[in-house]
């Protein structure tokens, strides 16, 4: 009794070549030796310096947009209110107008650098209560114990941070106009006197 059996197919020989040997090899990533960027994106911004070479802090308080209607449509211009200070008792307020926001900010900060004034501070707070008034703005400042923080908002906070005050209580009791509030805060800081200054004034009187 015979049985028909088909011969088994020979096993493929393992030549050690990968299965996708016929596929094209992936292209190697080309390395480009690029030079510096044209816009200097990684360049650190320069810290503005005051007339004495001290680092100044610049803060933009408010940007106003004005629209002028002309024959072809509307033309926009911008006005910026900025505050600069060295956080050591020296502050300045500036106002600038331009057709673009960056130009308006640059003008306002330059104007503020030209109008720096010095104020008297007692550590990181103020020596006594004071009320500043300018136009419709009325700002009350009160000294606070360490750890209280800067209890202020908006324009008042920007001025006090630039001056270097860290613990103070404030209250804006007049107009909410940014220019009036900023100038009232500066007026209040300019009225501050130390105890020895008052003693000298009494001796002279």
Explain how this protein is built.
This protein is an alpha+beta fold. The chain is built from four helices and eight strands, in the order E-E-E-H-E-E-E-E-H-E-H-H. The strands form two sheets. Strands 1-2-3-4 form a four-stranded antiparallel beta sheet. Strand 5 and strand 6 form a beta hairpin. The model has no long low-confidence stretch (mean pLDDT 82).
Helix content: 10-25%
Shape: extended
Radius of gyration: 34 Å
Low-pLDDT runs of 5+ residues are none
Based on DSSP secondary structure assignment, what is the total number of beta strands? 8
Q: Given the structure, what is the number of helices? A: 4
What is the structural class?
alpha+beta
Helices and strands, in N-to-C order? EEEHEEEEHEHH
Strand order of the largest sheet: 1-2-3-4
Give me the oligomer status. Answer: single chain
Write down the overall mean pLDDT. 82
Give the distance, in angstroms, between the N- and C-terminal Cα atoms.
144 Å
Strand count, sense and closure of the main sheet?
4 strands, antiparallel
Strand content: 25-35%
